[in-house]
Design a protein that fits this description.
By secondary structure, this protein is mainly α. It has helices spanning 18-22, 34-40, 42-55, 61-79, 92-116, 134-142, 167-194, 197-200, 215-223, 243-279, 299-307, 312-319, 322-327, 329-351, 357-381, 387-412, 425-451, and strands at residues 29-30, 82-83, 202-203, 206-207. The strands form two sheets. A two-stranded parallel sheet has the order 1-2. It has a two-stranded antiparallel sheet with strand order 3-4. The radius of gyration is 23 Å and the shape is globular.
């Protein structure tokens, strides 16, 4: 067997003492052979499925308590030290981030919630003409983040369905939606990177794409990238600009980033919807509710009912309960958004081990403060934050403190990866040109004002 470790650690804090206990090396294990997958990733996957089977069976709580501890240790053993990017820097975001760290958080929360449940979850909605099956119920349980069709989904918001109700129309609509959001994702990614090509558009190994190469060569490089090195990001804060222009530039980048995240989530959800209808027994469109994580006032609705739809159970479980018992509603808000901050920091740590936690903590902490302020406003006035004033408040608060969060993503290198849009040079140039011209205009304004003897505080 080839070497299983390389020198760049993925876990810079808190959990290194567990290495010897759970049997992992102190640096990233590289999946270079099938045996590595079998030894590291397959055990927690199987354990998670067994936990789901036991969860829907009565009188299994003792077994679940023991198995939950094993599950957590196996997940830590697999997720924190593993690096399945095969030393390919451009793949770190997709592989480490999505398949390991995020998966670890979600599965751990699921295992803990099933363990602590006093009674088995009950499936209330099944596909037409299907018969009850423990294995199929368990398969649905492990793939159902929102609990749709289960009794534990109480309190979860499911958006009103707008897609076609017939099978063929639903599939066609979902495929078109996935393609449209994938295209928008690429356009937005290119636009964000165009604000700072030196920081967002390259890795430490050099340019991502070589426009002098033929199209086929560039396509292969995106699908099967080569090259090594660490991921290097850049800040969206430009200290050379005056405060007002700096904030304008920050706000534009942050707004693009939030839309980028939205279309990315929708693209991923559409893809998983199609896969579910093909593999699982969810052959009826009504078994796959819409996602639509778009924003709306107030902040409570924005975070609680929309953006945290898929992570609601994860954040509430991993956030813990002491703060809720002490501070009530405010404690619930704080623990959920604190868990979200940790969740996103682990994402960024998977991408760049030098990621700083305080930026994410400040961003999500201020979101919690905003929600608490809305609750106080409602208690004092008896009204909720709605209408035009609600939109201004919600979007203003999100953009203001979202700048700090987006800067954390930028510094970790989240925007420094190519998409298929980058392969099409005319389209890429069409996106890059207006963005870079706008950025150059912002940088030219101070010089113009000085030439005209105009001073803006």
């Amino acid at each position: 067997m080839g070497p299983l470790c390389h020198s760049r650690p993925i876990m810079p804090f808190t959990l290194s003492p567990l290495h010897d206990t759970i049997g992992v090396c102190s640096t990233n294990a590289l999946i270079e052979e099938v045996t590595t997958f079998v030894c590291h990733l397959l055990p927690p996957i199987l354990c998670y499925f067994v936990m789901a089977v036991l969860a829907i069976m009565p009188q299994t709580r003792t077994i679940r308590l023991v198995l939950c501890l094993v599950m957590v240790l196996l997940t830590l053993r697999a997720a924190f030290p593993m690096d399945i990017s095969l030393k390919i820097t451009e793949r770190k975001f997709h592989h480490n981030l999505v398949f390991l760290q995020v998966w670890m958080f979600v599965t751990t929360a699921g295992a803990i919630s099933w363990t602590m449940a006093r009674k088995p979850p009950v499936r209330q909605l099944r596909p037409v003409n299907s018969t009850p099956s423990t294995l199929m119920d368990a398969l649905d349980l492990v793939s159902n983040f929102r609990g749709y069709g289960w009794d534990w989904s109480r309190g979860v918001h499911f958006p009103r369905e707008t897609r076609p109700s017939n099978h063929g129309g639903f599939i066609f609509y979902t495929i078109l939606s996935a393609a449209a959001h994938a295209f928008a994702f690429g356009i937005l990614n290119t636009a964000i990177r165009s604000f700072s090509l030196a920081s967002f558009g390259t890795l430490s190994g050099g340019p991502i794409l070589d426009d002098t190469r033929p199209f086929l060569h560039r396509a292969i490089r995106v699908c099967f990238p080569v090259g090594h090195g660490d991921i290097s990001g850049g800040s969206i804060f430009d200290e050379s600009l005056p405060l007002h222009l700096r904030f304008l530039r920050l706000s534009v980048i942050s707004t693009l980033a939030f839309v980028w995240i939205y279309v990315g989530l929708q693209m991923l959800y559409d893809s998983c919807t199609i896969l579910s209808m093909l593999i699982l027994e969810k052959t009826q469109p009504n078994g796959l509710p819409s996602l639509t994580p778009r924003g709306s006032p107030p902040l409570t609705d924005f975070w609680g009912r929309r953006w945290h739809q898929l992570l609601r159970r994860t954040l509430l479980v991993l956030g813990g309960y002491p703060l809720s018992s002490i501070l009530g509603r405010a404690g619930t808000v704080i623990r959920a958004l604190l868990a979200s901050a940790v969740f996103h920091h682990v994402e960024l740590t998977a991408l760049n081990s030098n990621s700083e936690f305080w930026r994410i903590l400040v961003g999500f902490g201020m979101m919690a403060l905003g929600i608490i302020m809305e609750d106080v406003f409602k208690d004092v006035t008896g009204r909720t934050v709605r209408g035009l004033a609600g939109w201004v408040w919600t979007m203003g608060w999100i953009v203001l403190w979202g700048n700090v969060m987006v800067d954390a993503f930028a510094r970790a290198g989240s925007f420094g990866f190519p998409t298929p849009i980058d392969l099409v040079l005319p389209v890429r140039k069409l996106v890059e040109y207006p963005v870079t011209e706008f950025d150059n205009l912002l940088r030219a304004i101070p010089s113009v004002l000085v030439a005209w003897n105009i001073t803006i505080a």
